[in-house]
Amino acid sequence: MKVLDLRNALIIGGTALAWACGTATMPHQAETGTAEAGRRIDVRRYGAKGDGKTDDSKAIQAALDSASTGDTVYVPKGTYRVRTIRLVANVHLVADGLLKQPQDLAGQFTVEKQHSDAPLFRAHRISNVYLSFRAETVNEAVYASQCRNLTIADSHLVGDSTNSRSFAGILWYDCSACKVTGTAVTRYGSARTSPKTYLRGTAIRVLSSNGVTIAGNELSYNGENGIFIHDSGDVEIDGNRIHHNGMSGIQIAFNAAERVNNYRVTNNRLEYNAADAVDINNRAHGEVMAINALIAGNYSRQNGFVNGESTPDGSGIATLIGISDVILSGNRAFGNNRPAVYMEGCGTLIANRNVTDGEFELVGQWDDVQLQHNVFRALRLLANARGKVLDMRANEVGQLMLPNGIRIDSLRMLENQIKSGPVNINMEGYLKFEGNRLTSNHDAGALLLVNVQGASLLGNHVTNRKNAAITVRNTASRVTIDSNVVTSGGAWLHDLGAPGITIKRNRVHEHAEVKEQ
């Protein structure tokens, strides 16, 4: 076996490190109740040749079938032609040799048939199995259903890059407590060539499962997603490098609300995927679902392109649709095609300490969106935006793009640095604009209050050297302008007859003159 790097050894709890050093301790020893490690069974004892010509399927299967609880079947160096092997409960397999499927087994993914009849390894209703192997397959390398405690570690899996409708490299269905760690999964499906169409073939596909860990892997050059999760919960996706895939790096979708909760998408590197870095999409379900997700510490770059052309997708941090209870924290995203964060029809979302050259975009309805200590190019709301609370605190943002006619019951902008005005407020709801630094060099001014039900402008630094800094229309009600520092190229305030306006204790710089207002 190849020597593991320290990161992968730590990820699988030290056991892989022991194997790399030649010891015989297996990861499921304690669970199988054996006092010591089981036997090591060499497949050559059962007639396996490893010459690249002989069909070694029966020999490897015979070695597995002869094993007892805790035993490990060992495949030494060589090339082993293999069709399909059925795994055995409590029996492990480690291969230094290359397992290679013949081309005549190749099948094609369809919506009606999402798994093949001839995976390299088939597992059904078994538990406590550890796999570490190298393979070139034309269908799935591993297809497991209704299994528990299966681990694939320190493996290298290569698919069929000529198959535009490829099955996944690894498929978990209705499984629990399963892991993929320290493994490379590549070339499952043809490379995407058009920004308008995509092809099948996913590195890791998880369906209707619970308690899945995908950590420390490299998932690249697959036809569709790096990771696809559907109707599954308690999923950890950590420390993976996911790049050059034909759709999103990580996609999570669902229909059954009772299965969907607890996602940890952390410390991944997502680059050059043809769609979003992370896509969690619940548009079809019809109601907002609380999923308790943490998306943190990820780095993304150049997602959303095919051969230099933009695709319809490509968010840098995440696309979030129809979900709630999500935290986006400490992510970094640069050079991606679409907004860094796209939020549509969501409930409660918190984004803090993210850094990106992209935009944050809000679409449709939401309950409570909190943006704190982020650095991003712009906040963009579409005209159909309807929110209960939008709370922005201590962000560094280039521009606020708030179209006419939106509704935000409570818009709170506190202690932000807004680099480019004007900020146009024409909405139903209440505005709290306090402690911000707003700079504008626009003829329209820096801050325009067209329509609000009430507004507090308190303790801001507002600068516009071309024209009036603040304009308040007569359709804006109950506006208080208090203790601001305003620098203006003309009259610092245009009050166009706003009802109930209060102006006090402001410090104004007009044409290099300082006035108290």
Automatic annotation (TrEMBL):
Ranges annotated as spanning the membrane: none
Right handed beta helix domain span: 415-507
Database matches in InterPro entries: Beta_helix (IPR039448), Para_beta_helix_rpt-2 (IPR022441), PbH1 (IPR006626), Pectin_lyas_fold (IPR012334), Pectin_lyase_fold/virulence (IPR011050), RHGA/B-epi-like_pectate_lyase (IPR024535), SCF-Subunits/Alg-Epimerases (IPR051550)
Pfam families in UniProt: Beta_helix, Pect-lyase_RHGA_epim
Pathway(s) per entry: Protein modification; protein ubiquitination
Keywords, comma-separated and alphabetical: Repeat, Signal, Ubl conjugation pathway
Name the UniProt record assigns to this protein: Parallel beta-helix repeat (Two copies)
Domain Rhamnogalacturonase A/B/Epimerase-like pectate lyase positions: 41-187
Segment forming the signal sequence: 1-20
